[in-house]
Amino acid sequence: MSNVLKAIINIQKNPISALKSNYSGRNSINNIGEALEAYIQDAFADTISESDESVKSQKISSVFSYLGNQNNPPDIMLNCGDAIEVKKIQSKGSAIALNSSYPKHKLHSDDSKITEACKSCENWDIKDIIYAVGVTSDENLQHLWFVYGDCYAASRETYLRIGKTIKDGVTEIPDVEFSKTKELGRVNRVDPLGITNLRIRGMWHIDNPLKVFSGVREVEDKCIFSLTCIMRKTKYQSFSEADKNNITKNKKLSITDIKIKDPDNPAKLIDATLIVMEVL
Asked: Alpha-carbon distance 146 to 209, whole Å?
């Protein structure tokens, strides 16, 4: 079964900065965002250097239970493992656009924003989710972060409460006609002629991990490529001894115990693990 530690080792062995040129021409990949997602997929499937498309397809089929689309999270789900959401930003200060899906502490199978194919691809209720965030130009990948949602986003009740409050507030507007929707609200027949409708949609943004975790990890622009991973220490300890040994014995990786703010209560610090690789 694949996991983030295996993916880190695969990336360390095959760090690719020139993503677009490396992936151009493969399966109609023609922009840096698609190349980034393909690279993440290859890292988890151990197919970065696999040239035989038949072998590659078999590996991908065995490793992943779901490969998603751009409109619904997640982008990738590991079979009996974590979910992965891939995001691209083009500066270290950019916020991440999540569109209508609020940030995920964990991925829940009853989330209205995920597809039926995702819900039914395997027997699951809750998965850990990794935000794979790449800092890119139009051609190259400079920084790649793997951050677990429970280190990054609050529990879903925080976001659901906001949405419910907005929905309830909209329905209290007098003399308007509402219709049922998965969005925050829909108001029909707003004008006297009854020809104008209003859709109320959430457009979520979240600060990127480079900004959020700048106190524990400051990336260097002089790097050709860097990889950073942050997870709770309990998550790191849950991996097999063999996978952890591959990380700790790799001289090109550094692993550090850190403290980070609890996303649900910033007054509380939680034990976390930081893994770093830099190509200078």
From this structure: 9
